[in-house]
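Handout, section 4.2: multi-component inputs.
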Amino acid sequence: MGRVDKATAGIDLFRNKRVASLIRFSGLFGLALSVFAVVLLVFGKNPIRAYVDIFSATLGSSYGFSEVLVKMIPLALTALAVAIPSRIWLINVGGEGQLFIGALFATWGAINFTNLPAWLFLPWISILGFLGGGLWASISGFLRAKGWASETISTLLMNYVAILLVNFFVFGPWKDPESANYPQSIPFPDAAILPSFFGSRVHLGAVLAIVGLILFHFVLSRTRWGLEMRAIGINQEAARRNGISTYRYIIILMFIGGGMAGLAGMGEVSAIHGQLRPSLSPGLGYTGFLISWMAMGNPLGIVAAAFLISVITAGGDILQMTHRIPGAAVHILMALVLFVVLARRVGKVRGK
Amino acid sequence: MSKQNSKAMLKTLSVLVSLALVLAVGLPEAAAQAKLKVGIIHIGSITDAGYNQAHSEGMHLMKKNLPNVEVIQVENVPEGADAERVMENMIKQGAQLIIPASFGYLDPALRVAKKYPDVKFVHPGGYKLAPNLGTYWASTPDAFYLMGIAAGKTTKTNKAGYVVALPISFFLANINAFHLGARSVNPKMETRVVFMGTFLDAPKEATAANALLDMGVDAMGVIVDSPITVVQAAEKRGAYSVGYHYIGVQKFAPKGWVSGIAFTWGELYTRFAKQVMDGTWKSEALLGNLASDYLTIAPFGPAVPADAIKLVNDSKQEFIAGKKNTFQGPIKDNKGAERVKAGEFWPLTAIGKMDWLVEGVIGQPK
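Output:
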């Protein structure tokens, strides 16, 4: 009980002093950048030039910025997958697996119903993606609600099962006979590829992510459900005695969270890859987990953290190109940023 | 705003200066000095002593051959949204030739190639072409057959083990070729194969290698992106090892080293760059063999007997001369079914259809 109280207090503090928090965050981010500047100097590179290149390549052109958005879409959705159940202190580590199952369901819908028109296809594969991720997560939710297994462990382990399941299909029944025996499904029909905007690769997934974030915020702050979730988060036993069905909340929130990750998988497989592959996700579910943690489950915080991570990833490639910096060095920058942001949070909770 | 203005002014100035230079030096001279930018994207680390390092070393040699070519290199690029962005950024930096050096970059590369018809792409091991996208690779079964001869002559326990990424037909063909080569000199030879399901997973590879060594295997081969883990596990336990991808794997297993199949891309990349510079590049599906300068048999280790080395070299010449076929019938698969009739052979152009393992190989092809 004590753990829960302290942690919720941490969130309250963050809400009340949002501006102060933002300033502190910027300071710590600056600290991470300065430490990495020293690393760059050790490599014999000019850190100022390096940072100018990172930011001008990602934010200085419409193309660079659009690519940051492309990167942010699945990260915001997988972060939501973690943030939604975290409202009642459920820890969903299974975003990666839910993403894969969402992609699996969407692929099933795309390659088996090739004659659908685009206006029907998009809701069809979106629903399937949501359903896939949601059902996968609600297995863990059910086990937790029954008190049979911790959702932290079961969601994590089910990631591996999900990836193996996708492998089963792409190595077996769904393998494209034209692909020289390489494990991938047949390409999606054109109508099943999410539309993109403004000649960039920013696709319909962006709209889904924004709607998801807004709905999440609205439900939390404006509805009875948000209030009940808060009550469960503060004291599960008291909430139960007041007639709130924690059992139902656990399963529903895991379902919606998983559905968000499933949408991320649907977006990646449809708009980015155009076919199902084992290399569908470079750990998007896990990065989403970190983002939700960095943002403390706050919708605006998720946008900010996903933006930051995307800029560093996209900018990191630029560093390799223009400054001949090895790829491993970019991981150092990412690790530094995560370290200062996450270390701050633990310190805050303990300090309270 | 003023910064942009000064940037624009600098740009105009530099254009004027270069124009003046061109006029001063004369146009033909300027054309000869034309600098080419080549971009290469790696799926993993360029120090993996394997797949990625082989490509990266190829770029190094190209740069040595053609000092006026500039290389833009990015490693650790996943096969999703990132690959296309990296390629586009390379083009924005002026790259005119791009090597997306992983099978899974093929479709992203095709999309970028369509968007930039003037930029040339060469993709390793692909199966699709575009007017500005060609493919290149080397057919490896003959080389694996030669490794089988060397390992079959060197082994003491008559058991070889292979740690392999995926059960795709190209890899099955390689293992089959290795085993047929080993059997040709050592009828008691048996080859065990373990599939990883992924191209890079060091802990899993170590477990698989040690499990094979526990079964009495004393000659280890490997088909994953980085051979280091498997080769080192073999060396540690006094077993022999056969390398793949990169020519410099021997240093990780100096004592037990047999030999290796290495991709030495340098001269090929030099040719690609020259063709793009002088405008003779054309899209084609290039498939090399043992006669090509980009498929190399690595130096032999101290454990390989002299007669084995001679036999490998002789057989290599027979393959090059077309007097020898790796998949010469009769061949049965490891379930007893006849796959190639006596007097016939399975052509190397059809290995994409090979979904079985030959008799004496212990493992499941599916």
